[in-house]
Structure formats: C-alpha cells, structure tokens
C-alpha cells in the first residue's frame, strides 16, 4: 500500500501543486482544485477504517503521504486532517469528510455539551469546516471535541513565515458537533505529539527536495570556468545537507513505524528534535550554496526554506522536545538510559506534567 | 543515490531476544568494572573477556556454522555489539577480527583460509589488525608504497604501515599492499590484500604513544618478510575493491556514535534526577541524536544484510556519529559543574578527562571527515 500511496500522491502533487499554486496560496487563496483532487483520491480518509470509507492505512503507510506534502510544500491541511480523523476514530466518533483541522494549543473547557476558550494557531483554521481539539471538564476529565468553525465567536487570522494560515479561534459556549471522553490509552498531549510527528515527516520531505534542488543548481552554476559542484568546499556542504536529509527522514520514519499501538512519545520527541535541527542546517546550506539567486522571490528555494523555518517551531521546537526528553532521561537515571534508548516499552514520555 | 533508500528498519524479534542474555552476562562479568575503564569503549583490551564471549557464541556470529559461527542475522550481531559498547565492555582484542576481518575472509578467502582463520576468531583467540595507512598515505590510501613481490616461497613483503590499531596485540594483519605497477595498472589497480602472520621474521612492531599516554596505534615495518603463497586473500590486483567493500562494515556500526557513551552515563549521575533547563535541553538533544543515529545505523545494517554496498549511507552514519561522539564531552563539560581530572576526582571527572583527550581521534580512525563527505558527494553525483 505504501508504494501505491507514494506514487499516487507524488504524481498528483507534482501535477497540481506547482510553485505558482503555492505562491497563490501564500497570498490567501484556498487551493480548491488541489484539495478536490486529494479528496477524490481518498487521502483525507486514508487512515480511517474501510467501513468509514477509508483505506485503513497504518501510520507507516501514512508517513509517505505526509512526507510528500512537505516535499511539494502543499498548502493544505491534509496532515492535520489525517491526524484529526485518527483521533476521532480512536475516540469512537468516526472520521469526517469535510475539511478538518486540529488545535494542539487550547484553553478549552467543556460543560453540558458547550465549549468555551481559545484555539491558538490552528493550521488553515479559516478554511476548515471543523476543528478537532481537547477540552477539560470541571471534573478534571479530558474530552475529544469536534467544533464547527462557523460557530467560533472570533477568527483572528495569522500566518507563519511561509504564508500558511495559522489562525486563532475563540469559542464562547459553542455547541460541540461531537464529543467523547479521551480514551485512556491517549494522553493530553496527543495532538501536540501527533502534530510534531507530522511536521517531522514534512520537514524530511522538504529537506529531500531542497537537497535535490541544491545539488542540481550546483551542477549547473559555473564559476571560475567550472560547475561550483566541482569545488570541495561546495561538495562538503552538500554532503552535510545529505546527512541531515537522511537523519530527518529516518528519525521521522521511525516515529511513524512505532505509532500504530499508541503514539511513541520518545521517538516522536527524537524525531522532532532531529528534524528541527536538520531543518535549520539544511536551510542555511541551501541558501549558502545558491548564493544571491536563492534570496529572490522569483526562484523557488524559499518555498522550501520558509517552510523549514516555520515547521521546525510548530508543535514544539527542538528545545521544547529536548527538554522533555532530558527531564525524562534524568528522572530515570543513568542505569535506565541505555535500556530506554533500546526499548520503546520503557519510553513513556509525557509533556504535560 | 536517494535519501529514501536510507530507511528505518526495526530489529527483528528473534535478534531482540538476545539482548536480555547479553545484559545478564555483562552485569555479571563486569559488575565491578569502573566507569573510567568503561570509557575506553572499543579500545579496552582484555583477552580473557574476548575468550568468554567466544564461549558464549557471540563472536563471528553471522558466519556459517562449519567455520564456528552461528549463521545469525546481522541484526543479532548488532544487538550483541551495541550492548557491549553501551556497557563499555573491553572488546578491543577481538573487535576488528569480528567486525571486518572475518566477513572479509568469508567473502574473499579460499576454503583453506576460511578453515584456518575463522574458527579461532569465533573462539575469541585470534586477533586481527588492519594495515592500510602508511607514513605518506593517509587519506590518499591509493598512494601506498609497501610492496609484495612473488618469489619461490610465495611473496616477499617490504615497506611500512603506520597508525595500525592493536598491531602489538594482534596475531594477524590484513594488509593492503602494492603488487603491480601503478603506472600500468591505474590509480586503483595493482593493489592486493594479504593475511600477514605478525610473527613472521622481518616484521617489527613499535607502539606509538598517544597524547594521553596510551598505546593503541603502532608502526609496523616489513623488511623482506617472507609470506607463504596462501597469504594472498582474494584476487591479485583487486585489493582496492575488496577494501572498499570492507569499509561499509567498518563505518556504519554503533562504535561510530557510542565511543563517548560513558560520559553520558556519568553526566546523568552527576546532574541528578532534577536537571535544570539547560541540562535537560542538552541531555535531551544528545538523546535524540543518539536515537536517530542508531536508527540510521540499523538502516545501513539492513542494506548490508541484503548484500548491498551502502558506501555513502555508511559514511553518513560515521560522519554524523563522529560529530556527536566528539561533541559529547564538549557539551557535557559545559553543563555539569565538575572539572576534568586525570588523577583524583569523581568518576565523571575521570571519564570526562579521558574522552576529552580521545575525541580528536574519533574522526581520524576509519576515514577522516573530509574523506567521508567526499564519498557522500560522489553518491550525490557531484564528483
């Protein structure tokens, strides 16, 4: 299934998700044709069970879809919708087919089926029909809630460095579309972790594209009578870029591979740290090798680098996840350090304590 | 080369089962082995320990049974060696034989060579070193000048090797030497590999003291050393290709990112259960990098197990791994309030002092940073 997913989405995105489309989306246009094509191919429901119209894909399969979104800088909330539908299924609420996003940063409270509070930086919030989030009740229990964006009291538009919509939504005693108690095998940071996992995959895809673009440019651009790729100084920089591309890819893939039972928080943290660090280095090398042309709006390098600069910070920065890992490792002590690295069962990390 | 070829591969359950056995063995045998010795990592020499591993069946594991192996998967071997390294076990005696020489002899050796050399390696009784570098041939390995010339008895060896790890303790060296004319056979032709019995008359071995006073490197001189006909391993003139195949094994293993693991352990002890924000961030970031490198290394192990030669992927692991193991003492000396001490001081102070001094060697041995990045650049099609 993985190969089929990958070839289908890569073909679809390479046809439709052109630099021009990405550019238009950055100025605030919803890429309706692209979204329709993704829907027609079943991607928003790929992880949902077959009875719900999905393909019952594992996280390992979903990895290649989300990585491809990063590779083509796709300006749509598909990763968010896949996660949202996964959480709705986990909570027994059933997957949705209208446009769905998620919010990991919330101060939501729920009582008698009504929700109040703020959702911060909801990806594509203004374009979504509904949003999945978690809300606490006054008995200390956490609920999965589905909110209709149209019932928001206020939508404050925001964008990240890449011109991707990241909107703040506030709700005041809004009726939930659906809700259920958060299943006990999931923690209160489940959306943060799932979001971090998705961004790691997108970063891996974007760095891969950046590597191809930069290596190809270095082979074409001539200075001192030869392609700049012939200079060792350039070769060594591109080698480091390739290492970072590989590191981000393997780290993200490992997190997805372990996600089918429950989210592997330790691997997710490691993936987001590795991918975010790789994003910083890769963007810097991409610009360094490209020189002035890479700094222009006309040349598409920034389509990738501005996303890397955004995604590394979203759903927890390298520092955020490093601190969570470090606190967890120190609390366990040195004797448990190596056993923890090698055994997912011992990696019960939480960011909510 | 495509980055997506470099993919994650979990350790299969049958290999994973070995882990508990190795841990139980190590906690028994090494229960009072001090931290400052664990810091030697794969430079710690203990022939008795190697023999015990041989008894357990944990050396040459991937070899066929008829040569003393267990026909275990490369992942089984991976579990064993990463546990040994994490514990800082003294594995130096057999390390190169198990990692590199045995697979090379299995792949390129004659039946007689396999029967002669492999069973003692599996028993932990036969140690190998690698004769590659020479005084004027470091990164430019193809410029070696040591020669083997055919004569009535086999081959006569003349020249000099240097930076040969463990030569003073080893029984054999697998040496890369020139057997043909460089002018007529091309830059990478005319080289062959020999299994050199280091007791052969005409061979002199001199240890080279390192900056901390230890002796791991050696210079080895060959003065008309007479080798028997059967000393040639593989094909005459194909030495360069054989060495290149061997390097992927040499460059992708966990010893390329775990050399400084001992200082991580002592630093966590020194920091205690409640780190401050800076300590938590640094410890966490190192943890993430270790986990990612291990996953990358397992990805290369899978490619090796499928019979591929993932030269560029192995180079990625070694280069990223060396950067990490060199940075470990640097980062940790900055967040733990203890000074390095060679004599006196805590376990952490001693381990930090040792690894700070050893760290420069991590990106020299097995190929320098620049050479590795050059191999990756070639994989990218840049050269």
From TrEMBL, chain B:
A GO molecular-function annotation: flavin adenine dinucleotide binding
Residue stretches making up the Acyl-CoA oxidase/dehydrogenase middle domain: 129-224
One GO cellular component term: plasma membrane
Cofactor requirements of the protein: FAD
InterPro entries, A to Z: Acyl-CoA_DH_CS, Acyl-CoA_Oxase/DH_mid-dom, Acyl-CoA_Oxase/DH_mid-dom_sf, AcylCoA_DH/ox_N, AcylCoA_DH/ox_N_sf, AcylCoA_DH/oxidase_NM_dom_sf, Mycobact_Acyl-CoA_DH
Keyword set, alphabetical order: FAD, Flavoprotein, Oxidoreductase
Protein name in the entry: Acyl-CoA dehydrogenase
Top-level taxonomic group: Bacteria
Listed PANTHER family: ACYL-COA DEHYDROGENASE (PTHR43292), ACYL-COA DEHYDROGENASE FADE34 (PTHR43292:SF4)
Acyl-CoA dehydrogenase/oxidase N-terminal domain mapped to chain residues: 14-125
A Pfam family annotated for this UniProt entry: Acyl-CoA_dh_M
């Amino acid at each position: 299934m993985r190969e089929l997913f990958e070839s289908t989405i890569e073909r679809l995105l390479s046809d439709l998700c052109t630099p021009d489309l990405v550019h238009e989306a950055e100025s605030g246009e919803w890429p309706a044709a692209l979204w329709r094509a993704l829907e027609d191919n079943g991607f928003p429901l790929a992880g949902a069970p077959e009875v719900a119209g999905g393909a019952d894909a594992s996280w390992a399969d979903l990895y290649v879809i989300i990585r491809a979104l990063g590779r083509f800088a796709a300006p749509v909330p598909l990763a968010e919708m896949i996660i949202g539908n996964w959480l709705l299924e986990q909570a027994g609420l059933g997957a949705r087919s209208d446009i769905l996003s998620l919010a990991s940063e919330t101060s939501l409270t729920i009582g008698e089926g009504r929700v109040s509070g703020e959702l911060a930086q909801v990806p594509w919030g203004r374009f979504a029909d509904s949003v999945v989030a978690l809300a606490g009740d006054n008995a200390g229990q956490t609920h999965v809630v589905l909110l209709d964006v149209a019932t928001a009291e206020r939508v404050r538009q925001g964008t990240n460095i890449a011109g991707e919509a990241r909107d703040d939504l506030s709700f005041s005693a809004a009726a939930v579309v659906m809700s259920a108690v958060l299943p006990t095998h999931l923690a209160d940071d489940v959306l943060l972790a799932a979001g971090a996992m998705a961004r790691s995959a997108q970063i891996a895809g974007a760095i891969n594209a950046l590597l191809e673009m930069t290596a190809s440019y270095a082979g074409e651009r001539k200075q001192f009578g030869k392609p700049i790729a012939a200079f060792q100084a350039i070769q060594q920089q591109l080698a480091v870029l390739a290492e970072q591309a590989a590191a981000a890819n393997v780290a993200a893939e490992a997190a997805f591979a372990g996600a089918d039972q429950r989210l592997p928080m330790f691997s997710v943290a490691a993936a987001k740290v590795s991918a975010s660090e790789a994003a910083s280095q890769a963007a810097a090398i991409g610009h360094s090798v490209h020189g002035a042309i890479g700094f222009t709006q006309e040349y598409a390098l920034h389509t990738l680098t501005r996303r890397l600069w955004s995604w590394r910070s979203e759903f927890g920065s390298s520092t955020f996840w490093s601190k969570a890992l470090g606190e967890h490792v120190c609390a366990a002590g040195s004797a448990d350090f190596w056993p923890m690295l090698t055994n997912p069962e011992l990696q019960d990390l939480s960011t909510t304590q | 080369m495509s980055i997506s070829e470099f993919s994650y591969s979990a350790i299969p359950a049958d290999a994973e089962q070995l882990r508990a056995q190795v841990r139980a063995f190590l906690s028994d045998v090494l229960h009072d082995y001090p931290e400052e010795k664990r810091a030697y990592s794969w430079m710690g020499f203990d022939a008795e320990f190697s023999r015990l591993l041989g008894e357990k069946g944990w050396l040459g594991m991937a070899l066929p049974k008829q040569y003393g192996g267990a026909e275990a998967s490369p992942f089984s071997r991976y579990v064993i060696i990463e546990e040994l390294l994490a514990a800082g076990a003294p594995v130096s005696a057999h390390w190169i034989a198990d990692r590199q020489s045995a697979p090379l002899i299995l792949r390129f050796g004659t039946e007689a060579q396999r029967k002669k050399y492999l069973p003692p390696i599996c028993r932990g009784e036969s140690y190998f070193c690698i004769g590659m570098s020479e005084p004027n041939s470091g990164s430019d390995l193809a410029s070696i000048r040591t020669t083997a010339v055919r004569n009535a008895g086999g081959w006569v060896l003349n020249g000099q090797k240097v930076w040969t790890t463990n030569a003073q303790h080893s029984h054999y060296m697998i040496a890369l030497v020139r057997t043909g004319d460089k002018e007529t056979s091309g830059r990478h032709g005319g080289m062959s590999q020999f299994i050199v019995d280091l007791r052969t008359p005409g061979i002199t071995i001199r240890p080279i003291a390192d900056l901390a006073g230890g002796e791991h490197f050696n210079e080895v001189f060959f003065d008309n050393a007479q080798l028997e006909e059967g000393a040639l391993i593989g094909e005459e003139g194909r030495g360069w290709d054989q060495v290149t195949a061997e390097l992927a094994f040499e460059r992708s293993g966990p010893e390329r990112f775990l050399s400084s693991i001992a200082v991580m352990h002592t630093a966590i002890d020194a920091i205690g259960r409640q780190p401050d924000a800076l300590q938590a961030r640094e410890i966490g970031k190192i943890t993430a990098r270790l986990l990612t490198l291990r996953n990358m290394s397992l990805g290369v192990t899978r490619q090796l197990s499928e019979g591929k030669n993932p030269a560029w992927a192995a180079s990625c692991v070694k280069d990223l791994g060396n950067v990490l193991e060199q940075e470990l003492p640097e980062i940790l000396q900055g967040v733990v309030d203890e000074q390095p001490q060679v004599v006196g001081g805590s376990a952490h102070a001693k381990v930090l002092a040792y690894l700070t001094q050893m760290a420069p060697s991590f990106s020299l041995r097995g190929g320098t940073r620049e050479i590795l990045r050059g191999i990756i650049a070639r994989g990218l099609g840049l050269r």
